[in-house]
Amino acid sequence: MPMPEKKPKGTRKGYTTGACSAAAARAAMQGLLSGQVPNQIECLLPNGQLVEFKVDEGYCRDGLAHAVIEKDAGDDPDCTNHARLTADVIWIDKTDTVQLLGGKGIGLITRPGLGLEVGGPAINPIPRRNIEENIRIIAAEQLLHRGVQITLSVPGGEEMAKKTLNYRLGILGGISILGTTGIVHPYSTAAFRASVVQGVEVAARQGQNTVVLTTGGRTEKFVMRELANLDESCFVQMGDFLTPALDAADQCGIQQIVIGGMVGKLTKMAQGEKITHANRNPVDVELVADIARTIGAPEEICLAIAGQETARYASECMEQLGLEHEFHIELAKRVIATLENRYPGRFNIAILVCDFDGNKLAEAGSLLA
């Protein structure tokens, strides 16, 4: 019998802390409903995929159901690989309510600028919605009469967080529950870097003169809508590998570069980062404050921006001032200037900026006909 083919090393996908938390919550909810936590649980990921997770630890006791899912990060191991995402679930007297709390090992939000409530747990919006969706799938009837409270925790999360830049963002005491699709792609591996270069080369070999580089799935969907006239081969998810993508485009003779991104990654590009991963150098908030100053934001707001650690905070401030469009145009222009300085006379560069829901905020540069 032939042996099953092994995936090349460096290409195996894993699951996000958000997906594992949703699976733990669903398993615990199943235990609360039936009196026994299952050994396996099916979980709906944010990308619509159904995945079976092994429940590492589960029990029901005194009206509480407890479940643990151990995170498998695939070939993109970070400090949360093998983290034990834990959910404890109880009934509460609030009809049709799914209440989500952060326990030990989950970070606490202490500063604005992350799109989360200050004083609340570091559980991002998409994982929050995904957890609730999974709960409602199996407990819709019971929720007509009462509510459920889910407390997420991560044993050892405080120590894991010390290996991240969470503290710079004002996330203290634990890790963040993250993930927009539920899947961890091996963005930080040599294999993914090679796939980015290959994607650019494929576009060139098919006679394309334009490559559209995006940092992830949301930005790719955004630019595909904006540039629906382009062939699918033009679109390359570069992850954090900006420079390898541009170097490959340079070598292949590609003339038009379009970059689709959100405020955080674009700020990293504007400040000259060649790899835009969050765990690399922090955002240059002085640069962000200078952009705000350039478009006429009040000095006290610029100083507040310089005192924070995220570019998103600046974006939120500009939205309140009615300067969001101007801010993102100036940011995009700074990205173009940085890249043109690095690749003088080589590319025609355009930048498309979207928000965290994939809505267009700004555009700078020009697209060749």
Polypeptide structure, described:
The chain has 369 residues and is of the alpha/beta class. The chain has 2 domains: 14-184, CbiD-like (2-Layer Sandwich); 190-365, no CATH class. 36% of the residues lie in helices and 22% in strands. It contains 11 helices and 18 strands. It has helices spanning 17-34, 125-139, 157-161, 190-205, 217-226, 242-252, 263-270, 285-294, 299-306, 311-321, 324-342, and strands spanning 14-15, 40-44, 50-54, 57-61, 64-70, 84-92, 98-102, 105-106, 108-109, 147-153, 171-172, 174-175, 183-184, 210-214, 235-237, 256-261, 348-354, 360-365. The strands form 6 sheets. It has a 5-stranded mixed β-sheet with strand order 4-5-6-10-7. Strand 17 and strand 18 form a beta hairpin. Helix 1 (17-34) runs parallel beside helix 2 (125-139), helix 7 (263-270) runs parallel beside helix 11 and helix 10 (311-321) packs across helix 11. 45% of the residues are buried.
